[in-house]
Design a protein that fits this description.
CATH architecture of the largest domain: Alpha-Beta Complex
Largest sheet: 9 strands, mixed
Number of domains: 2
Radius of gyration: 21 Å
Number of strands: 9
Oligomer: single chain
Shape: globular
Order of helices and strands: EHEHEHEEHEEHHHEHHEHHHHH
CATH topology of the largest domain: Spore Coat Polysaccharide Biosynthesis Protein SpsA, Chain A
Number of helices: 14
CATH superfamily of the largest domain: Spore Coat Polysaccharide Biosynthesis Protein SpsA, Chain A
Helix content: 40-55%
Distance between the termini: 51 Å
């Protein structure tokens, strides 16, 4: 019998884009068993948009809990053997399900994913996700027979090159690794992919299957939220390091990436005058990767305010332009 798939679409104030996302599912050459839209506490016209699709989808309304909570609610509701995720502002190519199913079957994989292009202001923008991470040109080397070699290491080194909207995964595998971590608000997908990568085979389709829409409300566009999410994922991984893969190389990569993020975070806290949080971030960075220059910056935060202002002016030593834009939205997890 053909494999069955449940499509899960988490939606929060997605009225402007949700109809187009659903149309891209209805246009699939391989039709899913069910489409589940999880309304994560929207206060816009999302319920009214859903009324136009009554009888064609399963509509779940819940209190706002974030993307992990919404996707988990959809997974628990689903009855298909496979799960495909689609963010409410993204668009599938008509053959996404067909090509992901074919790749998973040919490589006996439990997880399949494809490439992504950006859709911004109605125009397609390159390069693709795979091109940005040097996967497209090395496809035959890193993924012979469509199977990604050592997906855990690739995810750790390049982090988010697998977009949830481009993924097809066996439902049983999701339950085996305990679904999305609902305590992680951003980069929750990376956390789940890393856990899956330790147990399951990843199939890769070297073709663009998704258009990811970029707009003002994208959660990942907030550098504070994005960076805090990645730090949370890496700290969680570090806590369970001894029970994971036996190789030590990935631990060195983990410490390097975590240390760099914490240095950036400390510099950004310094810029907005949060000296205590800057020191805490930098202290954590010491434990990941030692730097004499960073030690000097940490000590300098104890000096008079005029010295602090000079230090702020030199923050670009640790961070690129734009990475500190905007104040943090609430208290961030890495500083707790």
């Amino acid at each position: 019998m053909p494999a069955t798939v449940s499509v899960i679409i988490p939606a929060f104030n997605a009225a402007a884009f949700l109809g187009e996302a659903l149309d891209s599912v209805f246009a699939q050459s391989y039709q899913p068993k069910e489409i589940i839209v999880v309304d994560d506490g929207s206060d816009d016209e999302t319920p009214q948009v859903m009324s136009a699709f009554a009888g064609r989808i399963t509509y779940v309304h819940k209190q706002k809990g974030g993307p992990s909570s919404a996707r988990n609610a959809g997974i628990r509701t689903a009855t298909g053997e496979w799960i495909a995720f689609l963010d409410a502002d993204d668009i599938w190519m008509p053959d996404l399900l067909e090509k992901l199913f074919k790749a998973a079957a040919e490589s006996a994989a439990d997880f399949a994913f494809g490439d992504v292009l950006i859709l911004k202001n109605g125009s397609i923008v390159g390069p693709t996700f795979f091109e940005r991470h040097n996967l497209k040109g090395r496809h035959d080397i890193v993924a012979p027979n469509q199977t990604l070699i050592n997906p855990f290491s690739h995810l750790l080194e390049f982090d988010q090159f697998i977009l949830p909207s481009a993924v097809l995964v066996r439902r049983d595998a999701l339950f085996a690794v305990e679904l999305f971590d609902e305590d992680i608000y951003c980069a929750e997908d990376l956390d789940l992919w890393l856990r899956l990568a330790l147990k399951y085979r990843f199939a890769i389709v070297n073709q663009v299957l998704v258009h990811r829409r970029i707009h003002a409300r994208n959660l990942s566009r907030d550098p504070w939220v994005w960076r805090a999410g990645l730090i949370t994922v890496y700290e969680k991984l570090d806590r369970y390091a001894l029970t994971l893969a036996s190789s030590t190389r990935w631990r060195k990569v983990l410490q390097k990436r975590k240390g760099a993020l914490l240095r950036e975070h400390g510099a950004c806290y310094l810029e907005i005058g949060e000296l205590l949080l800057a020191r805490k971030s930098w202290a954590k960075s010491f434990r990941a990767t030692w730097s004499p220059r960073l030690a000097v910056y940490w000590l300098a935060t104890l000096l008079p305010q005029s010295w602090i202002e000079t230090l702020c002016n030199r923050k670009r030593k640790f961070t690129s332009a734009g990475v500190c834009s905007g104040p943090p939205a609430g208290r961030l997890t890495d500083a707790d």
